[in-house]
Design goal:
With about 300 residues, the chain is an all-alpha fold. The chain has 14 helices and two strands; from the N terminus they run ααααααααββαααααα. The protein has helices at about 15-35, 40-50, 60-65, 80-85, 90-95, 100, 110-120, 125, 165-175, 175-195, 195-215, 225-245, 250-275, 280-295; strands at about 135-140, 150. The protein has a two-stranded antiparallel sheet. A hairpin with an 8-residue loop joins strand 1 (about 135-140) and strand 2. Helix 11 (about 195-215) runs antiparallel to helix 12. About 30% of the residues are buried.
């Protein structure tokens, strides 16, 4: 008699990058609310904002990144992310920030999409990187904020402003926070597409620097958020290892290989003390995440 193997049920595991995304968002909501514990936050919401209908015991799962909020991917009005943003304005921007698409190294993003991402951000962010020739059109990107004028993203197949390494560093220095991370990610992806190793390495190390600065940001002070920032930096180093270090090097590549190794060593020196300060369950989780990052492959690159 054949034995029937029971199929595994339940929702699939949340991908690591999406876990980090939920962790960053949910803790930012906590910061905005003033709560420091999950149960404290749930009591606050049930008392002050009962119409939000936050299920008891669900918030700790968001803080761990275990599940994605329902409706979040479609940006539905009924999603918890949008509803909470009405109470704590600006928190939805953390979840829907373009950096999460840009950090998804399982996918290559072509120039047209990179330009669209640039133009989805504030003009101050992209003005030094995108030629502003073309038509300005009125679009509704966010129903809560209403229509605004943006540069038509369908124009100009060749749109990047050429800059020297020095001018790029100056431009990056004017942008910080998540926008700064996104800009460096776009430039790293653009450098790869152009097969410009210098541009790629400078930009991916720029991502590392931007993420490192966020450690001091008031919105990223929960230990779980600090873990997320370290894991994101690790993902960038993993991509650089796969493209620069593992294939083997020639004289041209060795300079960039050393630069990557030096920054990676600094990152590793920061990971170990952070791990030692975490409670045992969180330490085990982060160790598992680090191992997962170390095994990542990005076949499209």
């Amino acid at each position: 008699m054949e034995r029937k193997i029971a199929s595994k049920r339940g929702r699939p595991a949340t991908p690591l990058l999406q876990r980090l995304r939920v962790i960053a968002w949910s803790h930012h909501v906590m910061v905005a609310s003033g709560a420091v514990q999950a149960d404290q936050f749930e009591r606050l919401i049930s008392k002050a904002h009962p119409r939000l209908r936050l299920s008891s015991g669900l918030w700790p799962r968001y803080l761990r990144g275990d599940v994605m909020p329902q409706g979040s991917q479609e940006r539905a009005k009924s999603s918890l992310i949008v509803r909470l943003d009405r109470v704590y304005p600006g928190t939805a921007e953390i979840f829907y920030h373009p950096l999460w698409e840009l950090m998804d190294f399982d996918r290559l993003l072509w120039p047209k999409r990179l330009r669209e991402i640039y133009l989805s951000m504030n003009e101050f962010v992209w003005m030094d990187f995108v030629e502003d020739f073309g038509d300005w059109i009125t679009v509704l990107l966010d129903e809560e904020k209403g229509p605004r004028k943006v540069l038509d993203a369908t124009e100009l197949p060749f749109w990047k402003i050429e800059q020297s390494d020095e001018s790029l560093q100056v431009a990056w220095g004017l942008i910080d926070g998540l926008d700064g991370v996104a800009v460096c990610l776009i430039e790293a992806r653009s450098g790869y597409l152009a097969q410009d190793i210098r541009a790629f390495v400078n930009a991916i190390l720029g991502v590392n620097s931007m993420l490192k600065k966020l450690v001091k940001d008031p919105g990223f002070q929960f230990p779980k958020q600090q873990s997320a920032l370290l894991i994101l930096r690790g993902m960038c180093f993993r991509l650089a290892e796969l493209l620069i270090i593992e294939p083997g090097s020639n004289e041209k590549v060795k300079f960039f290989e050393r630069a990557i190794r030096n920054r990676r060593d600094e990152w590793e020196a920061q990971v170990n003390p952070h791990l030692s300060e975490l409670p045992r369950p969180d330490r085990s989780t982060m160790t598992r995440w680090l191992n997962q990052v170390g095994r990542q492959k990005f076949p499209e690159w």
